[in-house]
From TrEMBL:
It comes from the Bacteria. Binds 1 FAD per subunit. FAD binds at Y222, T234, S235, Q236, L237, S238, F272, D372, A373, D374. Belongs to the DNA photolyase class-1 family. Belongs to the DNA photolyase family. Residues 1-129 form the Photolyase/cryptochrome alpha/beta domain. Its cofactor is FAD; (6R)-5,10-methylene-5,6,7,8-tetrahydrofolate. GO terms for biological process: nucleobase-containing compound metabolic process; response to light stimulus; response to stress. This is Deoxyribodipyrimidine photo-lyase. Gene3D superfamilies: 1.25.40.80, DNA Cyclobutane Dipyrimidine Photolyase, subunit A, domain 3, HUPs. The keyword Amino-acid biosynthesis does not apply. InterPro entries: Crypto/Photolyase_FAD-like_sf, Crypto/Photolyase_N_sf, Cryptochr/Photolyase_FAD-bd, Cryptochrome/DNA_photolyase_1, DNA_photolyase_1_CS_C, DNA_photolyase_N, Rossmann-like_a/b/a_fold. GO terms for molecular function: deoxyribodipyrimidine photo-lyase activity; DNA binding; FAD binding. Keywords: Chromophore, FAD, Flavoprotein, Lyase.
Length: 476
């Protein structure tokens, strides 16, 4: 009897419960990833996926194992692998949201038909049903949820570390199953993908190194630096966490150890754990509300007739709105596949409130362009900025991008990094260049020819938005 470890967003060998369970059985074990191009996440995500699978393949080979990567329609590929390799038990970490829910349903149907055991494991810190209000209901607001989670941290299972490979029995793969499949390879080899991925270190070891480096070198400054996009003040662990190259339980354990070893930095580490709890919260919300992937948590938002995406959306995507902090964020996203959290909030507010677009328009763009595009975090982030989600940022609140830019990028370093065409502008013009459009056209004609200098009329936009808020209040 053979067992199969089915990888999804858990591309690591350590702290991996299915691997621990399988290796304790002393049965021949094979390892597989199924790539269904029709049910895959966005393109940037697939580029990281290809690189991460190569790293995983190398790590498995060092254990005398191998990684099977099957491409094609999921049910067919899954069935073929189960039958070809005489698999009787599949162990995996289940994932929330689409495309994973559909894929997992398909896996269940195949396993039931073939009479194969399918054993799911969770990756959450705590089972969602164990984190409830006094009335026994799921939480719908972050602060009480996080307080509850903080009070339960001792109950989070300890990471399991490395499994015992000493009695591992490999299964020999057919040659064609050992290659990175063609469509995944093709996307990884595109002209845009190579420079994108070359800026990052991919894989489990890179994730562990990054976490260690951040927790030993940067953590003490995290609370005061985390909102400034020009500073390297956050962990940049989101991509590793999304792909499961490091487990969130291991990261939590490392934080708690760091708190014990560096008591002077305990508060700073606590504020980092608070961000990790946002991640747990987004999964928790999706667990109890699977419809959130395309329906607003506050149901009246689902009745709004949103305008069709237009040229302004294209300008937003290209970083050509004319509002420098917004455009810098969108260019950072395009060039690196990542964007600073403060700027994600600003570009999200601009799209949903200034341009009055459906939050799903932004969610879809992020899904395709972010390397860390994560179903739960992305949906929660967009519903939060649009003001239709579970938490604070109400619909009537709209960020003033100029005030935010002056506050969080006072010297304009971030703007100049991503909008080099604005580099010659002095600090007092860089946040709102339209205020001096005439002067800029005279002094910097090349800049004026390449960057929009029209007045976005922030006052009028705010009034328009307030009218929409009034209309929304009338809705039941
Ligand atoms: P750090 O500040 O170092 O935080 C550590 C970890 O905590 C992050 O890696 C992340 O896993 C988690 N975290 C931090 N902030 C949040 C948050 N607000 N919500 C949920 N988890 C959080 N994050 C994603 O991982 N994938 C997404 O697709 C995504 N889409 C977003 C869309 C919008 C509109 C917004 C406003 C936020 C989105 N976020 C998303 C959350 C957040 O912006 C990123 O997690 C963060 O910028 C990643 O950088 P970091 O790892 O340096 O964060």
């Amino acid at each position: 009897m053979n067992q199969l470890i089915w990888f999804q967003r858990d591309l690591r060998l350590n702290d991996h419960t299915p691997i621990h369970r399988a290796l304790s059985q002393n049965e021949p074990t094979l390892f597989a990833y199924f790539h269904d191009p029709q049910q895959a996440q966005g393109e940037a995500n697939q580029v990281w996926l290809a690189a991460s699978l190569s790293k995983l393949q190398t790590a498995l080979q060092a254990k005398n194992a191998d990684l099977l990567v099957a491409e094609g329609e999921f049910s067919q590929a899954f069935e073929r692998v189960l039958t070809t390799y005489n698999v009787k038990n599949v162990l995996y970490h289940f994932e929330l949201g689409e495309p994973y829910q559909t894929i997992q349903q398909q896996a269940l149907a195949v396993c039931q038909r073939l009479k194969v055991r399918l054993t799911p494991f969770d990756q959450a810190w705590l089972p969602p049903e164990s984190v409830l209000t006094q009335q026994g209901n799921p939480y719908g607001v972050y602060t009480p949820f996080s307080k509850k989670v903080f009070s339960m941290l001792d109950g989070v299972p300890k990471p399991e570390g490395e499994a015992n490979w000493s009695n591992f029995q490999p299964v020999t793969l057919e040659n064609h199953d050992r290659q990175l499949p063609s469509r995944l390879k093709a996307i990884a080899n595109t002209d845009w993908a190579k420079p994108l991925i070359s800026q990052w270190k991919v894989g489990e070891q890179a994730a562990i190194n990054q976490a260690t480096h951040f927790l030993t070198t940067h953590i003490q400054h995290y609370p005061e630096r985390r909102d400034f996009p020009a500073i390297n003040g956050t962990s940049q662990l989101s991509i590793h966490l999304h792909f499961g190259e490091i487990s969130s339980t291991r990261l939590l354990e490392s934080c708690r150890q760091a708190q014990a070893n560096q008591p002077g930095h305990s508060e700073a580490i606590q504020s980092f754990i608070r961000q990790l709890i946002w991640r747990e919260f987004s999964r928790y919300l999706l667990f109890f509300n699977p419809g959130l992937i395309n329906q607003a948590y506050q149901s009246k938002f689902n009745q709004i007739d949103w305008p069709e995406p237009d040229d302004q959306v294209v300008a937003w995507q290209r970083g050509l709105t004319g509002v420098p902090i917004i455009d810098a964020g969108m260019r950072q996203l395009w060039h690196t596949g990542w964007m600073h959290n403060r700027v994600r909030m600003l570009v999200g507010s601009w799209l949903t409130k200034n341009l009055n677009q459906h939050w799903l328009v932004g969610q879809a763009w992020f899904e395709n362009t972010l390397l860390d595009a994560d179903i739960a975090n992305n949906v929660m982030g967009w519903q939060w900025v649009a003001g239709c989600g579970v938490d604070a940022a109400p619909y009537f609140r709209l960020f003033n991008p100029v005030v935010q830019s002056e506050k969080f990028d006072p010297q304009g370093h971030y703007i100049r990094q991503w909008l080099p065409e604005l580099a010659p502008l002095p600090n007092q013009l860089i946040h709102a260049p339209w205020d001096a459009a005439g002067k800029i056209k005279q002094q910097f004609p090349t800049l004026a020819a390449n960057y929009p200098l029209h007045d976005p009329n922030l006052k009028q936009v705010r009034l328009d938005h307030q009218q929409r808020v009034q209309a929304l209040k009338m809705m039941t």
